[in-house]
Records
---
Amino acid sequence: MTALDPTGPPGAEAASAVVSGSASIGAAGALDVSVGRIRREQLHQLLHSKPFLVGAVIVLWWVVCAIFGTLFVPYNATATNILNTNLAPSAAHWFGTNNVGEDVFSRVIVGARDILEIAPLATLLGTVLGTTIGLAQGYLRGAVDMIVGRIVDAALALPIVIVAFIFVVAVGPSTLTLVVVIGFVFSLIIARTVRTAVLQERELDYLAAARLRDERVLHVMFVEILPNVLGPILVEFTVRLGYAIFTIATLSFLGFGVQLPTPDWGADVASNYGYLAAGYWWETLFPALAIASLVIAINLIGDSIESVLIQ
Amino acid sequence: MLLYVLKRIGLALVTLVLLSIIIFFAGQVLPGNAGRAILGPFASQQAVAALDQKLGVDRSLLAQYWSWVSGVVQGKLGTSYQFQAPVSSFLWPALGRSLKLAAFAFVIVVPLSIFGGIVAALNRGRVVDRVISTTSLSLSTVPEFVSGVVLIVLLAIGLKILPVTANAPPGSPFLTQLKYLILPAIPLVFILFGYIARMARAGTIEALDSDYVRTATLKGLPRWVVIRRHVLRNSLLPTITVIATQTGYLIGGLVVVEKLFTYPGIGTLILTAATDKDFPMLEAGVLFIGIVYLAATLIADILYTVLNPRIRLGSAE
């Protein structure tokens, strides 16, 4: 089960690595060459999957907008102009102007910045924290596992948006609050996934060997187990990243996320949707489409990674 | 079996108590004190202190938590700071309206997504499957207010076939009311469709690959009989659980949809309460969402046990 056949064709090798789970990878140093080949094979598969490429191009576009957007937008995204409010899309204003006369196109481009800052940070925090909790739960079991499990259940008894919303209301909206709150809630969910993966690893020989060698608990958790559960963690990271964007955009829409006048898609929808009934659809539709394109792109990427790593 | 159900109810109660503590203390951290929030920035300090005393917010947190919880248990949800009227007189009508919207979304999405999942599974790997799977995955990841906006622009402003708001004129007949709820229900349907269809697809595929289905096929049963009698019965089991757990999500989604369509349900109630620092209203609203969610997952767990002979008989030993 844990042995790889180094002489087999690359495809079969990747398949057998998948079948045997990630347990075989990293467990034996002698197989490092073929581990590299599996990774290369997986990367090759990924780069040839259409959903992945489409997702990557869209995400890359928004990352470019987030970093360099202010340099190439036609207007200052926060320049209001009460003489040019609610203008329909035209050559001068590609996406029209909103109810305070800001250029919608410029705001959509620059609006990528905050969400692409907060979401990855929050997801990273959640992944690091969640991995630690999950490793401890799965490896130590017993009281730690039970107590943490109860807390996780209680915290997840409410929809995430509501949990995040209560805490943001409690401490006031700021970038830091959003990162910490979303990161913390996500860590609980990620802990569940990691715990399950660790429970499977626990039964394998290399851990029995580590225990016999009398390795320290932290060493076993982070040096022995962690590399072997990286696959599910990576998948969880991309899935959570999509949900982080979902949650942040939603909080901004509810008025508890990114605050105006900072250009932000969710907040822009919130401040303009009241004008929909009057027929001014462009100031709401374009930021909404921007959110949709970003979450769908990230999910395409996540889905492709999942199907390559865990088949 | 009975033991399991009792244990499960016990666990749900523990979770509920933890939840009430989280909600209560999160509410207490809210910036600004209650007296000041009600009287406004120009009231004198004495007036604020007097009101704080009258509201009981100058007591210790533990004492406040106790009086709140014991009140809730007796059905007394407190008095809204903002409206100076019992919270329950706002909570129940709002809950009723949200329930109407949620139920409507459920009635649409459950048959639709189960059907979609089964069709995808029966065409596994083909174009139909890929279209259903990819579309449902994409739809379920887009925030409700985003798909809501796109729908409003398309159906209400572009084609003008549906109203922009969720509120039918007062006294409208039932069907007219439903017509106003179609647009707000669709974003909820989108999200739920992804989860339920995925579950139905996975369950169906598992059943299709099983030995008993192969036996049924090999003994010459017509395909549709095999699907109806052997596949669906087994594949729908996990789906039922997912449907029940999604109730919790649904309420979170309601907050967003109700804001977008200015629908006066529990979501709007909580949002307004949070903005106005109306703690009793906020705490009661969030607690009820938690209760509904816990009840739904509890029912899902029990239903799953009751319907699954393997677990039902296994635990009887």
---
Amino acid sequence: MNMVLEVSNLSVLFHGSELTHAVHEVSFGIEKGEVLALVGETGCGKSVIAHAIMSLLPSEAEVRGEIMFRSRDLLRLSEKELSAIRGRELAIVFQNPSLALNPVHTIGRQVAEPFAVHRIMGRKEASGRAARALERMGFSSSEDYMGMYPSQCSGGMNQRFVIAASTILNPPLVIADEPTKGLDSSLVDGVCNELQRLVHENNTSLLLITHDLAVARRLSDRIAVMYSGEIIEMADTEAFFENPLHPYSRGLLMSLPENGFVPIPGTSPSPVSPPPGCRFQPRCTEGNRECAERHPDLLFTRDHYVRCFFCH
Amino acid sequence: MIHFERQGLLWYSGIFLLGIFIVMAIFPSQIAPYDPGERFMPYEEPESGHLLGTNDIGNDIFSELVSGARISLIIGFASAILTTIIGLAIGLTAGYFRGLADEVLMGLTDVVLIIPKIPLIIVLAAFLRPGLWLLVLVLGVFSWESIARVVRSKTLQVREMGFVKSAECMGFGSLHIMISEIIPNIIYVVTPKFMLATAAAMISEASLSFLGLGDPSMGSWGNMLSFAFSRGGFVRDMWWWYLPPGLCITLCVISITVIGFAFEGEDEGVRIE
């Protein structure tokens, strides 16, 4: 076992006018070179986990638990120690590429920036490396793109520039927060290829946060399904897609267009006052009284970790 | 970033006027027929071979006018540069770090904002007998508040944008983010402010000098007005003595303001969506 990232009992609470439980006791690990997909609907807390790992949460957020990254607890590092890790060892790709690039700088400068900032090499050498990185990404005439501004490029191109910039220092762990959101299918393809190439060439670990199940299936080795701030099922990707155990996971797969577009009835519970028992119980077709009263644990059965009384 | 063809006549005339003054400031000896210290017959009229006559001690007024451009422009631009640097530093720090830094710096800004500028400078001038650079310092140190406020509010807006977040995630330091990610995105609100600060500093200098509170040996346009007033220029109705420096101050300030407005109007097109 060569764990790059190990998250244990991570809880995130937001102290606002009401106390919001965004993430509740989440634990998972990522091995070297492994791709873990974190899937779930909007508001289930998957992006909050990414932000907690990057220490980007606002000050009113309370983070409990442990995030061990290469045997350091990220939650207990100073801002300065974090700055040294971010970019070099830990990178994040945000969901909106056009906003993640500075509109007033050229692409070349922004892709080369990490070298210059971390004082690894001079600007000239750095821009040579940036040009090579862009060539590897399939931009054949990288010189043309180096001088362009983000507003002159399409969203898919910008997303690949963002990936190039954030991974140019070969960090061992990359977090991709909805990297394909808002892109059309051919661009999704390009971004997926890029991430796949990254994982294969550099043996990078990837935490893929997405609500696109097709992307998750294509890229990930393991998949974790989140619902209302909890992981409700975690399994190897193939095993999960062949035989999802949790009623919510089954509902998710049934709601895909190729499986008939059957929606899950109801809406997800409010994170301010989640149901006392199983959080999916109000929408579950198989629920009984026990589900409404007792909260199920995440237990290992039939090659899956699953949080449901009926599956154990 | 300025598209010249989109700017109207106003922009061109502003540039043209300021250009004339800048040429006067850089090459006074090539333009002025005499040294401003050279003495001729006092109180000569314009017809006498001196383009604008001579003053009470026989200096050629046109030559004085030409060499005054350098003083006025130096005071205007130097104190505006100082103003802008202080305003940018304070506004950026307050807006980027927020919290305590913001409270303290904006409190300071409010305090400086309620100090009445001209009376304070008059008091300082009375005690310190200011020379050129002291005047620059005083004008610069007491007029940065509006730049600081504008920069702070713009920084608050820009710091929440994705590229600042992603720069933080790449491990860039705060100073780097402020200088190379935020400043290029807010510079368009600073340039017009810079031009207006230049114009304001020139007017302040002229009023102080006119009141006799500047350095009388500085030879600025304000000094010329002051001498014209106190040494008989107005009484004798010598318009060629008091009118030219007043016109120069007015035209110079107008040209700078017009250019500032042009910057402001132009940059509306390049704001970040």
